[in-house]
């Protein structure tokens, strides 16, 4: 059985946290969240989710959302919670009686509402992700020769001064293509957290009617069909972890399974990774994001996750 630990923190300038309160401090909020997440990851926890209060964000319509609202909330009326419940397709609204805006004296009720809701969604979430994870791992096994052939094609057909592009695609352009791009970026030294393997979910969209039609045709539940139209972050993370546990690194997988020698891998890096001249480095500044804040080291402050000395050539068109 899986257990969940919950921890509460205040953003800077709020509650018991130091700092000055402000309005629309999105950059500072992202820093605070990343700092807290990093703190618990270093203690061995796996951060499963973030429960926010008075914080919203753009999200896919398929996202499951829980709203816990106090009946005696004098700041935000109950009808506002009802509006959210009606606007979000996969929404659950939990109304707590005799509870104010800050859930004073009812913290245990809030935790229970959250944990009960999480357990109710866990079966569906695990089934979807398990299906995708198994597919990814099987693809790495069954597609290793094809992955190697495409990597070798770059070495054979491209030179440092080549200005042509190469289109890599599969049926949907997100699973086999995404795994191959993951391998290429991993070989080039890109951190796991920076590899953009989840962006397909933003650009790949089908209407509910189309999903239902395809699902009925091949006799697959709609939930599974929707999962095939996405590239979950968690599924790829588990895939990366499994690959490294088995082979030690992406490079060793490419060597042992895809058939590329160390010399060929080094040549591939030379083609894909371009040193930035000193003069240009002065103008190259990676954007500080929530992800980059996650790599805070000691007291040195935030730094960009993107290595300022290297950039990837644009040989790939998504």
UniProtKB/TrEMBL annotation:
GO terms for molecular function: phosphoprotein phosphatase activity. Pfam families: Y_phosphatase3. Residues 145-185 form the Tyrosine specific protein phosphatases domain. SUPFAM superfamilies: (Phosphotyrosine protein) phosphatases II, alpha/beta-Hydrolases. Gene3D superfamilies: Protein tyrosine phosphatase superfamily. InterPro entries: AB_hydrolase_fold, Prot-tyrosine_phosphatase-like, Tyr/Ser_Pase_IphP-type, Tyr_Pase_AS, Tyr_Pase_dom. It comes from the Eukaryota. This is Protein-tyrosine phosphatase-like protein. It comes from Absidia repens.
